[in-house]
Protein 1
Amino acid sequence: MNIISEFHTIATDLDGTLLNQDAILTDFTKKVLQKAIDSKIQLIIATGRRFASVLNYSKQFQGTVQVASSNGQILRLSPCEKRVREHYLPEFLVRTVVQKGKNFGLSPLLHVDEYEEGIDMVTEIPLKHPNFMNYANGKKDRSIQLDNCLDYNLNKVTIVCWLNHDKQRLKEFDKLLKAEIGTKCSQNVITTIPRVGPCMDVIQKDISKWSAIQEFLKINGKSEKGVIAFGDEANDMEMIKNAGFGVALKNATDELKSVAKCVSNYSNQEDGVAKTLVELGIVTCT
């Protein structure tokens, strides 16, 4: 199948998709995506990570990379760091969700949009805790630990995150939130993060990786049909389902595979994104 001319944009998740199990962007993957950029194909990294955490990867490419961070809540460009769009959870909702989580026995972790001030996360989880260190990719310089997150300014919160080794516990909390506060203003997404484990994000209603991609497409005058998207987890669902050609990697969840137009023969550990692009003829690699 030769579909070289059909796609103008590559949209990809980061952890579990573009990165291998050691959170490394391999030389082969960099080579293939750089060829795509050089041929005027846009690259969008759509991830649950904070923008500062993406830069180490996006800056490995020459040219502009569009970044939809915090599950699409914040849009910026790399390497210029230009802000494109932002969405914040209502303060009353953050306070309600955080308190209910604390009452449920969970420790909150807030994503905050204070990039220029050097702050990405505010949490009650000890910064030296292995689970937090893995989540923060071994860095704690852009994070603040508080006894009570509700004492912080909550006007720029993009995600309320909960980490717990027991995924069933997070599913129970998800049901509680839906029952007690509904789904009018927010949505809950449960995923499993490599090296971290189960995670639940509370994010803005109707704002996602896919809505961020749509915004980039609108700015650039491009169609949704020309997007090939790659993912592995639940927070990639809308992106994979609605892109012109949604690809679930071999290591993706069964649910994601069920809505994908294609299931890759390769996992993230096998350069799945790059090899699929080459096999489909979207990027040539010699």
Protein 2
Amino acid sequence: MDLFRPKGSSMKYLPALGALTICLPLLGCGTDERTFTPWVLEELRGDAGFTLRMPEYEVPPSKDSQNCYFVRVPDIADGGDVWIDRIETAINPGSHHMNVFRVKTIKNLRPEDGTPVMLGDYEGTVIEGGDDFDHNPCWVSPNWSDWPLVANSQKSDVDDTKTNWQLPGAVAIRLTPGEMLMVQTHYANHTDQPAEFGARVGINFHSYKRSPPPVEMGTLFATKQSIRVCQSRPTPTYSGTCRFPNAATITAANGHFHQRGERFAIYPWDGASIDHPPESSMFYESLSWDEPPMAINLAVPAPINTGIWWDCDYRWSPPTVETCADVNAKDPLQENDCCYTFGGNTDVGEHCNVFLYYYPKVESDVFCL
């Protein structure tokens, strides 16, 4: 098993063009100076694959920004399926997540409602969600509840902005020319996760070039939306289970929560037991909410009718940007106990989400909502 982990401190620093040394005013200068070199990814063209580039923009201080970019898979295989076995991402520091979805059922998040934009060489549209958490369709998760995951990255460390994920053996992602994808980027320019370098994301999809016919990879997305992290109940643990539709091998995984997340763990599950799996079976653990690792090169067997068990451990703390009044305002139970509930705002909302990849994909991608 390999883990993509951040290097050094989780604090990120001011933007630079080229390799410049800068310092964050609130920390002072001297020993707090850091150097950031903007990332560079090669441009893929022809049958080598395809490259997407999200336009660079600034995130205002103490604000979140979530955008939804829509683009169609290019025809790079003479009308045939587009098989991808390596994904490279490069993401400026301060990113909270970057997810790539296949667009399925259209609800209130419609590609045609977006503003035209070029994503590298490809025409697309973008719906800019800003920090309109309650109303903008790019923030309302039911809008993409049946959109399968293609890839994701939560890595954007100042010293190591890239992820290079080579799928195992003859495993590959199958895309269809003309299929609509949605790339969702979330930046949170707060003290705990600053984005002073600006928002900038690049993705390279490398074509499968090997001789054996590829085995299609499937994805699993699971979430617990009943979470409540309250001032009077400050250290809860929430657990969930999810079954695979067929026998499978888990090849990669990562977890996702917000500022009150302490520990995220994933285990094999026998598909029936209500007893917690043994700690010795754990195949994923994250102790970092802002730079969670991605486990790759896994080979965890999941026999038919089995699945995964996951835990999210939390520790309550007061909001850093908003107030408990803001937290209480979004609590559907209105307990006035400063209870963090499910929501995209990293300061006043929480998540407990699993991103997992398996093969072979036989019936469908997996959702446990």
